[in-house]
Amino acid sequence: MSVSFLISQAKSVQKVIDENSAEIEVLDQKIGDGDHIFNIQRGLKLVVELEDAIKDLPLAKALNMIAMKVLSGIGGSSGALFGTFFMTMAKSSDLDKDVDFNKACEMIISGIKAMKERGKADVGEKTMMDVLLPVSEKLNELKNESEFKPGLNEVIKIAEERMLSTKDMLATKGRASFLGERAKGHIDPGARSSQLIIDTICKSVINN
Amino acid sequence: MKKFINNKDDFLKESLTGFGKAHSDIINVCLDPSFVSRKNKTKDGKVSLISGGGSGHEPMHGGFVGHGMLDAACPGFVFSAPTPDQMQAAAEHVDSGEGVLFIVKNYSGDIMNFEMGAEMYSGKNDSIITNDDVAVEDSTFTTGRRGVAATVLVEKIVGSLAEHSGSLEDCKKLGEKVNKNAGTMGVAFTSCTVPAAGKPTFDIGDDEMEFGVGIHGEPGRKREKMQPSKTIVGNILEAILDNLKPEKNEKNLLFVNGMGGTPLTELYLVYEDACKILQSKGVEVTKSLVGNYCTSLEMQGASITLLKCDDEILKHWDSPVHTAAIRWGM
Fold it and tell me: Are strands B301-309 and B182-188 parallel, antiparallel or unpaired?
């Protein structure tokens, strides 16, 4: 993981999210308040615009700048959660040394753990954590493997399955929720955007 | 979409700037990070109250900054929670040294961002979370009940205690009591349109209403056919009374809140229906508030809040207040 890797991933993710923005917007309007896609798009635009400011910085500083930009520029749940993710990654030790696959996995795992604590959400609650937590577990299995590309294909598969699994959630959980039945049948917008991000980054790593 | 708008990116900034100019005798608007604060510095010895949330609910919260209510408000983008740097900057700006009480509506985004703002602020601070909406226990994006119109009452009543030199601890305690004593439920006849989206948040038929709607147009209890006002009001009050169970002869405040697109004429009609129904059930109404205070852009609809009042709440409700949206006694 390097600063140029982060910048190029942000650009690819931005493209994919823009291509799928209409779908995510509709999902959020069905069961949320409709701000998720605009927050994600605004955040990606801000990060991509940081290129000139961060491209020559050490990784820790660049991650920190991304974190502050995401935290102050997005708002909503997404701003707090993804800001927390990058802030935690920036705090990892030994970022001045080479960040290999193993180290990158550890950074992502600790970032997702911090998001879980911030959002106080777990698997099964129809949020982005339904995708992120299983992905984090898989990365934990994979991180020490020398040949990790087949594993990343599994990550892509897990993310997609878990994203789709949010569709029928809530009603089956037996929560005393008046919305339970009505939320059924709609994929969680945060789970969909997270899955798209994971899908894009994994494919790019596999193909390089 | 038909709105007064120049371009989407400047929508909030232009509106906030206009708000600042229109009420320059009471408040100041700071941009980047954006917050609304009182024109006069918080007096020494007074706890500062800071609230905030997504924009689109005006006059909530900027319209409640001023004597007897808030010290500062942090507006996020339309229907999106504000960011932690706004809360941090507002706290640093208004804190007189007595500490800051954050008043937060129970929405996941608001909770997370206020939590981070509070962590980033080095001064003494505490938070209260409002969750007065009896329509839903767990909505799609909150844990527990949503914080809606009763937040206005919390801000007024705690604002008065802070003005009367109440401690941070006492302010928090009173805020929690008001929240616990209040119940709200709303109904929407039309959707609202978020400027960034450019189209209505939800589809609703000409003869339909969303019963138990949230303040962003998020779904409530059920979709129903339109009914006469007294039936709608009766159903809302039934849900609230089920939850609050006011004692006979207990004093109550009745708050009819417009969602933004319903004229005052109708809101007063709702108030009349509510008074009659409450009277028939032996629920005494001694205080009132009617108007657009916690809105959802241009949505047609209204919410009703009932607040059980003891002497402490009544005293602080009546005390002088001077903000852009609420003013009496001075």
Answer: antiparallel
